[in-house]
Amino acid sequence: MLLRRKAIAPLPPGPRRKPLIGNLLDVPFNNPWAVFEAWRKKYGDVVYLNILGNKIVILNSLDAIVDLFERRAGSYSHRPVFTMVGELMGLDMAIGLNNRDKVWRQQRRLTALILGPAGIKQYIPLQERLATLLVAELQESPEDFAGLFNLMENSVIIYCPDTFKVANSVYPQIIKECEETFVLVSQSIQYGAYLLDFLPWLKHVPAWVPFSPHSFAASGKARILSTVRRPFQFVEDEMKKGTAKPSLVSHLLSNRSDVEGLDFENILAWAAGTMYGAGAESTSATLTSFLLAMAVHPDVQTRAQEELDQLLKNKRLPTMEDRAALPYLCAVIKESMRWHVALPLSLVRTADKDDVYNGHLIPKGAIILPNVRGIAGEGDYLTEFSPERHMREATGVGQDIDPYAYAFGFGRRACPGQYLAENSLFIFAASILTAFKITNAVDSEGKTIPIVPRFVPGLISNPEPFKCSIIPRTPATRKLIANELLASSTT
């Protein structure tokens, strides 16, 4: 086999490998970005590693990712086996990790029915209503912005009643459970998070052996399965009582379709659970990064608000129809997505067969990591925030790449909820800047609390907790929000 592969092409360049362990000690798995960037400069767009016998290829350019994930999608659309979180915890039934082609196709088909460009139009009134609720809640509990972002985005999936409050950390139990479970998933789904990812034979160690993975896996599986079914069960119960509000899940349950003899409810439960967890979490993370960027870059905030004021005349909150008339705000949202990428390594793929790319062998079974964070040029948080780059004709190079080209995944595995997420990001960000001024918080002595942007590593990377001041822009803001809230409740 080795002789045959050498005859095909050499492996891509990469750091020198040590006997037995390969590059195990070369990668700081918790925060690998500086190392990845150094390798990109030294070795180029395609870098090869070997860790404990596991073949890993890092893609450092959008061209390389598109060439493999889109133009050669037939060979690069499967996920690797995540032995712990996928196989033992059961998450391999989720849309993002599912390699069961028939089941995965039906999950994608169901989500396409409601999340395509035409399907998402039915959710615009709901998203506008939730944006109004968001600014109303922010006015009362501005310190709870992170929880509110999560609450409102999850509400698009299942629509939570208006009476849910986030003040004083009183979260709806269904959303709180999802948040706690997704912390586990986000930490576990990074390839290499567990030794089992590299040494899958350890799954055969009996449960009674000390340090066996099975006890931890069983606990995680129970949490994941409970969380996955909660959105589906919640909406189904509401529909039986006749109290369900319009949502993604209610529309799917109301329009059951054939799934080629498969279990419709199980497929829908996993599709809904995936959207409810990963989809809402990534949008919430981007909104939090947007808020952080506005606090750190007040000049950008001011210009975006001037654009909003010129259109809205301080008489109403924005609607989705205003999007085309707010090019600078749209550019600010895109720059927030580039400034900090919510999914810095996207989701890894695997090579289904030996392949040659640009003269180098991509060996069968290799784990393919798309270095999205490196493509975005992220890293200079305090001085580098330029929405203008997204208002000129894209060059397709470096930081001028349109973030929509990499933020939502690639090819057959691209996020099915991209259009819904784009709408949520716009209406929530536009409503926040219309109503509030975001600045540094002050301490008890009136001194400004500095903000240093830092981010938590994980599948979905959120900003580290930070304090900021979210205050109404004018004395009339409270009345404006009250009027909009009243109007939205009667439509």
From TrEMBL:
Family: Belongs to the cytochrome P450 family.
Pathway the protein acts in: Secondary metabolite biosynthesis
GO function terms (MF aspect): heme binding; iron ion binding; monooxygenase activity; oxidoreductase activity, acting on paired donors, with incorporation or reduction of molecular oxygen
Signal peptide: none
Keyword terms of this UniProt record: Heme, Iron, Metal-binding, Monooxygenase, Oxidoreductase
Residues binding heme: 415
Pfam families: p450 (PF00067)
Organism, as annotated: Mycena belliarum
InterPro entries named among the record's database cross-references: Cyt_P450 (IPR001128), Cyt_P450_CS (IPR017972), Cyt_P450_E_grp-I (IPR002401), Cyt_P450_sf (IPR036396), Cytochrome_P450_fung (IPR050364)
Protein name: Cytochrome P450
